Amino acid sequence: MSRKLEGKIALITGGSRGIGAAIAKRLAADGANVAITYSKGADAAASLVKEIERTGRRAIAIQADAANAAAVEAAVEKTVATLGRLDVLVNNAGTAIPKPFEEATLEEMDRVIAINVRGVFVATQAALKHMNSGGRVIMIGSAVGERVAAPGLVPYAGTNGAVKMFTQALAREIGFRGITVNNVQPGPIDTELNPAAGDWAVPQKAATALDRYGHVDEVAALVAFVAGPESSYITGANLTVDGGMNA
Amino acid sequence: MADLSGKTALVTGGSRGIGRAAALALGKAGAQVLVHYGRRRKEAEQVAEQIRASGGRADTVSADLALPDGPHDLAKEARVVVGGRLDILVANAGISRPATIEETTVTDFDELFAVNVRAPFFVVQQLLPILAEGSSIVFVSSLAAHAAVSNLSAYSATKGAIDTIVKHFAFALGRRGIRVNAVAPGIVRTDMSNFANTAEGRQFAIGVQALKRVAQPDDIGKVMAFLATEDARWITGDTIRVDGGSKL
Predict the structure, then answer these.
(1) What single-letter DSSP state applies at residue A138?
(2) Which pLDDT score is estimated for A149?
(3) Spans of chain B, pLDDT less than 50
(4) Distance to chain B for A210, nearest Cα, Å
(5) DSSP result, A96-137
(6) Are strands B86-91 and B58-62 parallel, antiparallel or unpaired?
(7) Residue whose C-alpha is closest to residue A177's, from A119, A112, A224, A235
(8) From CA B209, how far away is CA B244, in angstroms rounded?
């Protein structure tokens, strides 16, 4: 049985750990060859590449901080040069600096915007040069882009709101090329950035309808669906995967 | 893709259009499908036969969902066929009565709400005893719930009600491990949508959509089937627009 993403090339930004790593593994399991970018996690990225290669797919890891436009553009070009084409871009790299708004600094705000919004602009513009009909641009936004479950997330929530409208506007503009643009919005997912064990997790877990944290694989499963052929009529959509937290 | 094998599914309004596409997609994925119909027995039988012909299991059941006790009858019948466990409910049955505000009659309005809102609410209520942990309920919303399209204000209000029900049901049933979502199609080529079959309708669709083709029922059915799979196990309380990027 042929796999849904056989022959496809996917680039996942911020793919060395957490949700990004799960997405890379899942897209590879569905048949894609994958490139990931990372900023600091060179060891994690290298071991993920080996893990994917052991399954018979090709994988490469490229060092590129999402805030560094030249590095991000180079990563896109290297993906195409090495793997031959680009079908799926997953704009997963993102950051949050949780703290009370009145203590947040302009430097922190600039950093969050640089990675969560400016990084998406750069990667997407570079990727679209190479994408054909059937291409997929997939943002990893946040459920916080729709409803704010907790204090301390003003810059993060603001950038995720920006990603939502970026998605809709871009979907409208490039739909004629047969490329879809969608925004996957995870709720509380058990990662290093937001561990399911800890004080911070208690109210988030209670806010979900399913009464548990999500797993990175559960976000990756939705990304795989959006990357695949069965979602071909979905574009400009904000797809929430949050165990019902925003319900 | 046989990832729904061993699961039981009920699709209301499964004889044609989007419901038919959902029934076929679920059957293809390995689910045992119960195809509900109101009046179109022959078409429903053909859907079931098509699923059986590809090696699947399927039956039909009739119930008039415009009647107050229609959902109760349907649930009773469904339990006879699927037994004590239902994994997938696609509450798809619906009617449309295009009319201007002035043309809309009280009878039309009441029928729209009876079939499109009351019936799915009580179908779920009556099936709750057999909706298993891990089961998936999929409702049908509409682009029209979120944006003005054509002369559909009363119909659109029923779909807005569905979006509200999705959120409340998702939260109320989440602790039992039941997921509740909706898909919101835009303009789709079905028998129900006379508009989509006209040149004017196609032109309108292409104009408001990002993608430059008009949806076929299968475009929607595939997403409904995805929502029933393990891959969607963290998705609940959401209305997924499957509208080619309409009115973005």
Answers:
(1) E
(2) 81
(3) none
(4) 5
(5) ---S-GGG--HHHHHHHHIIIIIHHHHHHHHHHTT--TT-EE
(6) unpaired
(7) A235
(8) 6
Backbone angles phi, psi at A91, to 5 degrees: -85, 80
With beta carbons less than 8 A apart as the criterion, state whether A171 and B248 touch: yes
Summarised one tens digit per residue, pLDDT across range A58-67 is 999 999 999 9
Distance CA B26, CA B23 (A): 5
End-to-end CA distance of chain A: 37
- Catalytic residue numbers of B? 141-142, 155, 159
pLDDT for position B195: 75
Q: Which of B235, B239, B246 to probe the A interface (max A CBs under 10 A)?
A: B235
pLDDT for B110 equals 98
Give the residue among B86, B32, B85, B87 at the shortest CA–CA distance from B60: B32
pLDDT digits (tens, 9 = 90+) for A216-240: 999 999 999 999 999 999 999 999 9
Scanning B117-176 for CB atoms below 8 A from A yields 166-168, 170-171, 173-175
pLDDT of B149 = 86
Cα→Cα distances A235→B82, B183, B209, B246, Å: 36, 13, 9, 9
With CA atoms as reference, report the closest residue to A93 among A115, A72, A62, A60: A115
HEC string for B163-206: HHHHHHHHHHHHCCCCEEEEEEECCECCCCCCHHHCHHHHHHHH
CA B9 vs. chain centroid, Å, equals 12
Least CB–CB distance from B233: residue in A218, A239, A245: A218
Interface contact flag, B237 A240, Cβ < 8 Å: yes
CB B139 within 8 A of CB B120: yes
The token pair that represents B111 in the structure block = 């029928």
In Å, what is the CA distance from B101 to each residue of B113, B151, B155?
A: 16, 8, 11
Report the alpha-carbon distance of residue A66 to residue A121 in Å, rounded.
Answer: 10
Give the residue on A whose Cα is nearest the Cα of B172: A209
Question: Who among A168, A235, A244 is closest to B170 (CB)?
Answer: A244
**Residue A1 confidence (pLDDT):** 47
**Catalytic status, residue A156:** yes
Q: Rounded to an integer, what distance in angstroms lies between the CA atom of residue A92 and that of residue A137? A: 11
Distance of residue A110 Cα from the nearest chain B Cα, in angstroms: 28
Q: Which residues of A43-66 are buried (b: 16+ CB within 10 A; e: fewer)?
A: ebbeebbeebeeeebbbbbbbbbb
CA-based nearest distance A195→chain B, Å: 17
pLDDT single digits (tens) A67-116: 999 999 999 999 999 999 999 999 999 999 999 999 999 999 999 999 99
Q: What pLDDT, on the 0 to 100 scale, is given for residue A2?
A: 67
